[in-house]
């Protein structure tokens, strides 16, 4: 084992160099991340590196708190949009963008993909809306993910057509150059000048991380590494200040443990080389998805109660957090049982240290949960976290009086919008 570790140390020092550097970000909260994982020649070597990462002690669960009485939902002016569910929602350069979605009036039966192209932009300070131009055809093939670069919203598509970009300041759409290869269920992240993209479900072979220079419109690829092969599944790209991090899960049989659960791992690119860090099998055995950069660490946005986790499988792991400076993994508190099924919008939104999901708000700065149930019986609407508020719009609910066992259920849609002050 010592020989293997010495070999890995040599490989780390011999990692690839010379790829395009990642543009520096201006966030004052960022702490520079050191170099990341290096290429490894064999699966046994990968397992040895992953097994040797240290982590901090587990965090004790926090008790949920209730929001102050003065913080209540306030209805916004009705946006210039028709009733809908499943729209894209994003916080871009101080504005909330609501876009697309579906106007279907049934649940069940054949899958009905989003079919709307129109959208609107909310100024949360003045609480006023403005229409945005309809998106180009192809938005229906959206990959249900997006990236924000300054005042630009970038939406990858599942087909081979050019991806879409909306400039909030110019109120205009444009198409990006077609990626040089198909990315199945792409994950994207962006800085001021570059868009990074990779496949999040590459089950056969590990795909590359592609880079689009937003200034020149040219695609390229970062150096490859065995650390990015098919054993790292469920990939998600996260910008941690100036550094790009590929978060994912190690497939069973790779990580040296008897448990069937997949372990969280981070593969870091700092502009010169790859380095990788897996959650410790002893002190911080964690998993995660929907990873969020809080300004200090990367946390899993997906949270469930311990009871729900144990019901699914007895060896379920808690959600985790990764510090890209110290490379330490820690476990996050389970979702409090009282917040299970809290209701409200089944939506997900992040901004800074805050994560909103399914009726609760988690702030990683305080390590506390707050129940924030939606303003009505609507689900599958839009949700966006601004710097000082939570905004929701649209959604659906079943039409009353129907057979609860019916295969197809009629639903009612809304185009109402609400705002919930946080500060």
From TrEMBL:
InterPro entries: Gal_Oxase/kelch_b-propeller (IPR011043), Kelch-typ_b-propeller (IPR015915), Kelch_2 (IPR011498). The chain crosses the membrane at residues 35-56. Keywords: Kelch repeat, Membrane, Repeat, Transmembrane, Transmembrane helix. Residues 60-87 are annotated as: Disordered. This is Galactose oxidase. The lineage of its organism: Bacteria, Bacillati, Actinomycetota, Actinomycetes, Propionibacteriales.
């Amino acid at each position: 084992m010592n020989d293997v570790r010495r070999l890995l140390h040599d490989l780390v020092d011999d990692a690839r160099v010379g790829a395009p550097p990642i543009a520096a970000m201006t966030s004052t909260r960022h702490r520079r991340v050191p170099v990341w994982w290096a290429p490894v020649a064999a699966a046994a070597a990968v397992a040895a590196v992953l097994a040797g990462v240290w982590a901090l002690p587990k965090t004790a669960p926090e008790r949920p708190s209730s929001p102050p009485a003065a913080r209540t939902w306030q209805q916004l002016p009705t946006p210039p949009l028709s009733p809908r569910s499943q729209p894209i929602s994003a916080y871009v350069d101080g504005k909330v963008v609501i876009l697309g979605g579906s106007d279907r009036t049934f649940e069940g039966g054949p899958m009905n993909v989003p079919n709307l192209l129109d959208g609107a932009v909310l100024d949360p300070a003045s609480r006023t809306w403005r229409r945005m131009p309809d998106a180009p055809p192809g938005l229906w093939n959206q990959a249900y993910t997006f990236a924000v670069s300054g005042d630009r919203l970038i939406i990858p598509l599942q087909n081979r057509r050019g991806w879409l970009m909306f400039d909030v300041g110019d109120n205009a759409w444009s198409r990006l150059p077609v990626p040089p290869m198909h990315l199945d269920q792409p994950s994207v992240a962006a800085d001021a000048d570059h868009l990074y993209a990779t496949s999040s479900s590459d089950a056969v072979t590990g795909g590359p991380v592609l880079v689009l220079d937003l200034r020149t419109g040219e695609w390229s690829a970062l150096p490859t590494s065995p650390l990015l092969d098919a054993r790292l599944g469920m990939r998600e790209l996260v910008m941690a200040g100036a550094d790009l991090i590929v978060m994912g899960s190690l497939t069973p049989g790779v990580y040296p443990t008897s448990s069937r659960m997949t372990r969280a791992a981070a593969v870091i690119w700092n502009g010169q080389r790859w380095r990788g860090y897996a959650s410790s099998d002893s002190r911080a055995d964690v998993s995660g998805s929907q990873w969020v950069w809080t300004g200090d660490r990367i946390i899993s946005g997906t949270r469930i109660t311990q009871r729900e986790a144990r019901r699914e499988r007895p060896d379920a792991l808690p959600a985790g957090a990764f510090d890209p400076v110290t490379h330490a993994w820690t476990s996050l508190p389970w979702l409090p049982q009282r917040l299970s099924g809290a209701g409200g919008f089944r939506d997900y939104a992040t901004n800074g240290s805050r994560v909103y999901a399914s009726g609760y708000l988690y702030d990683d700065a305080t390590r506390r949960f707050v129940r924030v149930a939606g303003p009505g019986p609507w689900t599958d609407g839009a949700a966006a976290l601004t710097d000082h508020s939570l905004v929701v719009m649209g959604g659906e609910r079943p039409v009353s009086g129907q057979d609860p066992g019916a295969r197809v259920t009629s639903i009612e849609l809304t185009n109402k919008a609400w705002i919930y002050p946080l500060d």
